[in-house]
Structure formats: structure tokens, C-alpha cells
Design brief:
Shape: extended
Number of helices: 8
Order of helices and strands: HHHHHHHH
Radius of gyration: 22 Å
Strand content: under 5%
Number of domains: 1
Helix content: over 70%
Structural class: mainly alpha
Mean pLDDT: 91
Length: about 170
């Protein structure tokens, strides 16, 4: 270590050095470690909503008739669509299978809920959307079926698969 480097290292105070070390450690956390709780968290939100619907289907239809009042769709169809989305998409997210597709579907559902059902719940919907945007932009991470599929498909695509980014 040169005298100049040693002098500059000594000039940094201990709290600043600790802050810089902590920042470097946090910057080194792999995306896949962050993607897992995002995937599971979003899945949990919608899976729980499906379970509530299944507990009492008649009450669910009543909610869709009286409270939710989704435009255009009859309450029975809206309830069935919501239930199908709330069961299928969380399973896809937990597996990390077709993650971006599942996220787009859940974001569309969140938009419908925000616009037509519970507009006053925007802080909650904003949190859901923030989690889903990360997954939409960065994918499921390496601990996912998506990653395994991409490793299998990419060589078959040849030159058209120029992106080396992991999904």
C-alpha cells in the first residue's frame, strides 16, 4: 500500500468507513436473493385473496354484485376471473414460471381494483405495483423455472438471443 493510499485510508473516519463497507456489502447482494421475497410476497397477497373467495363463494358473488361492481362483466364472471387469476398467478410466481406474464396479469387486475373497486386504497396498490414493477423489469432471477427455460431456449435461438442478461 502506498503512503498516499495509507494516508487517505486513515483520513476516513470509522463511521464513514463502516458506512462505505455496509453500502458495498448491500450493493453486492445478488438480484435473485431480492427477487425471491418479491415473488413470494406478491404471490401471498393474491393467493390469500383467492382463499377468502373460496371460503364462501355465495358471499363472494354478493360482494361482486353489491360492492365491487366491476363494469361490463356480470358479477359471476368477474368473480370467476378474479379467482382464476388469484390462484394461477401466485403459483407461477412461486415457481418463477412465466413470471413477467403473471406480473402483467396481476398489474392489470390491480389497475381494475384501483380504478373501479377501491380507489381510496391507492397506497396499498402502489406498494403492490412497486414490487411487481421490479419483477416485470428484472424477471424472476436465477432461482426460477424461467431461468432454466431460458438456458435451454437461448442456444436454440442462436444469434437472435443476443442478450446475456439472466432472467
Amino acid at each position: 500500500m502506498s503512503d498516499a493510499t495509507l494516508a487517505s485510508t486513515r483520513a476516513i473516519s470509522t463511521p464513514v468507513r463502516l458506512f462505505l463497507q455496509a453500502r458495498a456489502w448491500l450493493d453486492a447482494v445478488p438480484y435473485s436473493v431480492l427477487a425471491l421475497p418479491l415473488r413470494f410476497g406478491v404471490a401471498w397477497i393474491f393467493w390469500n385473496a383467492a382463499q377468502v373467495k373460496l371460503i364462501n363463494w355465495e358471499r363472494t358473488i354478493q360482494f361482486f354484485t353489491d360492492e365491487y361492481q366491476v363494469p361490463i362483466l356480470p358479477p359471476e364472471i368477474a368473480a370467476m376471473m378474479a379467482l382464476a387469476i388469484e390462484i394461477a398467478c401466485p403459483i407461477l410466481l412461486v415457481l418463477g414460471l412465466f413470471t413477467r406474464f403473471a406480473v402483467i396479469v396481476l398489474m392489470a387486475m390491480t389497475a381494475v381494483i384501483q380504478i373501479f373497486v377501491y380507489p381510496e386504497a391507492w397506497p396499498t396498490h402502489l406498494q403492490w405495483t412497486a414490487m411487481m414493477l421490479v419483477l416485470l423489469c428484472r424477471g424472476a432471477g436465477v432461482v426460477s423455472v424461467d431461468h432454466l427455460l431460458w438456458r435451454w431456449v437461448r442456444p436454440k435461438l442462436g444469434a437472435s438471443a443476443h442478450s446475456e442478461r439472466r432472467t
